[in-house]
Design a protein that fits this description.
This protein has 429 residues and is an alpha/beta fold. It folds into three domains: 1-155, GTP1/OBG domain (Spo0b-associated Gtp-binding Protein, Chain: A, Distorted Sandwich); 161-333, 3-Layer(aba) Sandwich (Rossmann fold); 352-426, GTP-binding protein OBG, C-terminal domain (GMP Synthetase, Chain A, domain 3, 2-Layer Sandwich). The chain has nine helices and 18 strands. It has a six-stranded mixed sheet, with helices on both faces. A five-stranded mixed sheet has the order 3-1-8-5-6, with no helix packed on it. A four-stranded mixed sheet has the order 15-16-17-18. Strand 5 and strand 6 (103-107) form a beta hairpin. The longest helix has 15 residues, at 254-268. The protein is elongated and about 110 Å long. It starts with a strand and ends with a strand. Belongs to the TRAFAC class OBG-HflX-like GTPase superfamily. OBG GTPase family. Residues 1-158 form the Obg domain. Residues 351-429 form the OCT domain.
Length: 429
Amino acid sequence: MFADRAKIFIKSGKGGDGHVSFRRELYVPNGGPDGGDGGRGGDVIFQVDKGKNTLVDFRHVHKYAARDGQEGGKRRCHGADADDLVIKVPEGTVIKDFETGKVIADMSGDNMREVILKGGKGGLGNMHFATSTMQVPKYAQPGQPGQELWVQLELKVIADVGLVGYPNVGKSTLLSVVSNAKPEIANYHFTTLNPHLGVVDLGDGAGFVMADIPGLIEGASEGVGLGHSFLRHIERTKVLVHVVDAASVEGRDPLEDIRTINRELEKYNPQLLERPQVIAANKMDALYSEEDGKQVLKALKAEFEPKGICVFPISAVSRQGVKELLWHINDLLKTVDTTPVIFEKEFEIQYQGDRSLPYTVTRADDGAYVVEGPRIEKMLGYTNLDSEKGFDFFQKFLKNTGILDDLEKAGIHEGDTVRMYGLEFDYYK
């Protein structure tokens, strides 16, 4: 079966220990310390491989560990840095902390490569610790430990348009005739167990990416059947196309099918219903009479067109009405935000180095409290304060790192201004 989820253990390398040694040369009876520094442990890096489209590689290999840095040597020799461990994933993979479910990184858009776990720094050799009172230090600094984490990988396909509907209503057939995709097609339920993507080319530079989302069933939002596996692939799409069996070949009610699927979408993520929808009434060529077709279309239009959802009678097999459907979808895409749906970072991995980075809290001439230092500068570099989640993450960072406590010790009161690298905030408990 298509693999779009995986739980794996990742571990960065430990830094090499600093070395303890002393110069031992002829005619130099009391040589000083010459122990070298340890090498850096390997990072764990995730990188997008556009040749991959599933997470099947992680089905049998669950543990990934980078190598440790080499210990320092005699004669001030620096231990070798370990090679980084690069883990290749398909575009659209979201990396989450397994315990909390919070997003660590979304390998989409411009984010083609990201360091998820940094290797430990190498320890300093004893040559760094000689002083006027301690000329023969017999100790060196150990390397920093690596970091380890269980992560959940989730693949969410990247497409402009998602085809949704019950099994065997013709989604795969429609995708195959309008794009370059070649999904398996057969007349039984759950033929499609993985999403297929195809590029729809309308000519003159017009076109879009369409995904055939596997068949949904009632209860999908609770995980019935393969519900969650299917629903996560809809989250990035801009327009949803309901494909229904207008001929009721299997006795299905197309109106009830649309209602049921929309209920499942709402339970899974209410924001999905805010996206433009279109109804493709498929298999019109299989109706017994023209009058039957008119009745089905009349019922669909009466219920959904007042809600702004257009209904298109089509036959994916004969391509009847398909052209009109595609151009309508293309027009809808022009009305929506074209910014890719990227899942924002919610989880910060704590490093020894991060916690030891300094910062200062000072009072400016205008009375504002100024917080500066490498720890603040680094945090602001990867936090999007314009988003609600990003600002919530920022507030938790200030609290968990003790910065708020230090501000209160400095005498801050409600309504006072806090300034950080050009950003200003009013302080409230």
